């Protein structure tokens, strides 16, 4: 692999980089500093207003869903998977409400459909009990595994995540040392845990569409990042997207 020379750095930063490299750590900062938070003044008041309204609308839908799901759980407290579904949705979407505003995002119709559908799919999930293909405890264990893995991935990203595909900076630490899109593995485990305990035609269709949309999001995100040399180097190092040895 050909290594490009990094831009000149102040002496203090050069020493810090050398020390990190000597410890075997990989830099999570892209060549272009695209992970810096964008202030409302730099994107304009119109764009800032749209961003705020979109996040408020998402928060409202999340709150309405959580209220309906928790009410059903109160009626039958043995449905742990239903309560964990709410926790998982808050993990995947709620934290995105506080994500950085990126400089570059993918606003193409395909990316919008994949991102919005893959994020707000929970509004179409059938919350009433379905067919239990596996015991409640097994489904809850899968959900917890997915939630903890997703939390680990989000901690690795810090605030560099969101709904739309975007370049918020290249991260190669934490969960991103093993697969390129670890959060999607967390989503998958959480979704499968709920689906297998609350199986039905409606939920099967919803989650089937959800999985297809998430694959679309991954493809669009990688296409957006393909012109970032630091991401290309990262992709050569970490081969698999979501499931090691499979995808």
TrEMBL record:
Pfam families to which the protein is assigned, alphabetical: ICMT (PF04140)
One MF annotation (Gene Ontology) recorded for this entry: protein C-terminal S-isoprenylcysteine carboxyl O-methyltransferase activity
Domain of life where this protein originates: Bacteria
Bilayer topology term: Multi-pass membrane protein
Biological process per Gene Ontology, one example term: methylation
Species whose genome carries this gene: Paraburkholderia fungorum
Basic and acidic residues bias (residue ranges): 11-24
Transmembrane segments: 52-70, 82-101, 107-125, 137-157, 192-213
Name this protein carries in UniProt: Protein-S-isoprenylcysteine O-methyltransferase Ste14
